[in-house]
Design brief:
alpha+beta; ECO RV Endonuclease, Chain A; six-stranded mixed β-sheet
């Protein structure tokens, strides 16, 4: 996909629009809710279905595989998205429990390929395909305590993250596939209730 010129062009102009719709759909009183991550994940899954066919993409996965968001040709893939000027703050696990976070630090290691999207409105970001092998090489080189960032004591950041240093190393690795994106917002006339009203109006 990352070498398909036609698809790359479509991603560059279409992904910002679709992610803007995801934000509008997940907003209330001007504030974007946490559910925006799930909507963005659906957008990326739909991209895989568009490119590879519905029969080759499995998205209805059990919650027993919390890190796996989709399977492409039966290959598990994790999808992560983040907004901001710099690619940082990517959650590995959502928890506020200190013991769970410590257990995660002691036992976790990279297992799946990663699709990572860095959203930077009015700036440059991108979509990256980071193979498991790249993550694992960086993890082994840095060590788990430098690769994994625990929440600070007394704060409530809602999760354990990939360290900014590890993430930058992963997205800049020669084996990582990437598409640079200019994140420009459009003027969109969006009504989140219209499709539901239309469905109520059907006979």
């Amino acid at each position: 996909m990352f070498n398909d010129t036609q698809v790359v062009t479509k991603i560059r102009y279409r992904l910002p629009y679709l992610f803007q719709l995801a934000e509008l759909e997940s907003s209330r009183a001007g504030k974007i809710g946490m559910e925006v991550g799930s909507v963005r994940e659906k957008v990326i899954t739909a991209l895989l279905i568009y490119r590879y066919g519905e029969e080759n993409v499995e998205s209805n996965l059990p919650i027993t595989e919390p890190e796996v968001d989709v399977k492409l040709y039966n290959q598990p893939i994790s999808i992560k998205t983040i907004s901001g000027r710099e690619p940082s703050g990517v959650k590995l696990i959502w928890t506020v429990d200190a013991e769970k976070a410590k257990y995660f630090l002691d036992t976790w290691h990279p297992t799946y390929d990663l699709i990572f999207v860095h959203v930077n409105w009015s700036g440059k970001g991108g979509i990256y395909y980071i193979p498991y092998e790249v993550q694992n090489t960086i993890f082994n080189k840095m060590g788990r305590e430098e690769y994994i960032k625990l929440p600070k004591q007394g704060t409530n950041p809602r999760g354990v993250e990939i360290s900014d240093h590890a993430l930058r190393a992963a997205i800049s690795n020669d084996r990582t596939k990437s598409i640079e994106i200019n994140w420009i917002k459009e003027s969109i006339d969006y009504n989140p209730f219209k499709r539901w009203v239309d469905l109520w109006s059907e006979n």
